[in-house]
Amino acid sequence: MRRAIIPASLLLLASFVLGATVLHERVAAAAAAVQQVSVVSPVDAQGSVRVRQQGVVRTQAALPARSFSETGHFFRDGCGDNLPAGTRWVISSFAATNISDGPSGGELSLLDPGPGETLPGLQIRVPARETAQLTFPQPYVFTSPEDGLCLLAHGLPEVLMTIVGYRE
Asked: Contact, 110 vs 149, CB < 8 A?
């Protein structure tokens, strides 16, 4: 116990000496740099600063107009609506659960409903009896390059997919 008290006391004494001699000027200079601030106007009779409220902003938490959070084996958004080129689907997450004993997966892509062709999109591969999820801190955006395309999520029957996002 005595062995621990002596070094601790010496360390404490050395820090006092160092603070009083070497660091004294730096501490004094830093304290002198602090400036006093006084508010002179607008002040009321009690010396409190008057604050004027200019307007009130009302907010309401709401989902985007065409938002979706869908779970299923198959999902379409905008098919049959003849959406214009430039339509955007903003995806925040895409998950797939594989209920089979073998690997499987799903895909999220743009579909041309006429010929039934898809444009390459997000693919998710899922090991047997597991769930895989893609969550995007900055949303993944599909932009339709031509008129009439829609969003399609599809996979094998043993894959249950969840898609969260909105169309703008």
From this structure: yes
